[in-house]
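hi! just following up on the protien thing from before. the input was this:
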Amino acid sequence: MLFLANRANLDSRRLLTRIHNRLQTQVDSETAPIEQVWYHTAAGNKIGVRATVDPVRFLDREYPCSEAELQVSFDFPRDLDYDCYRIQWVERERDLMGGWQQDETHMTLGPCHFQLDYDDATVQRAAATHLDSHPLNVFDTRIDDLVSVLNMLEWTDGTPTVADDVLR
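and the predicted 3d structure came back as:
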């Protein structure tokens, strides 16, 4: 049995270490999509985990980009009733970034939203399901969701979009 209800003792530094370690274990495998993992830091503090990803291996299909970066950050503000996070896919080759943000930035959409940026502009922003579960479960769920989003990514008149029914 896995007990996940007690998040009180979990801090962002410990969580980021667990996510880093989980991703790092895949680096040595020749078939794993993760190529490199590192901490994103500010003023010497861990504020996120970044990983270089091979999209072809990640999606198990051909993909028009040779390299992507997974960006993950979590925060546990005491003044909010929920955890904050960003889980994003970044393709520098195509100037494309998409992912989930659970924070206070666009409260008209609720606490969580999906955002797709292209060519330095936001091209899509939609409400997403607020996941009230352990942050590691949130991470796993959003990684699964990311595969669905990338598989359904469409380009209309040179602009990327994802159907709202694909977004969770």
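Residues 12-166 form one domain.
The two ends are 27 Å apart (CA to CA).
cheers
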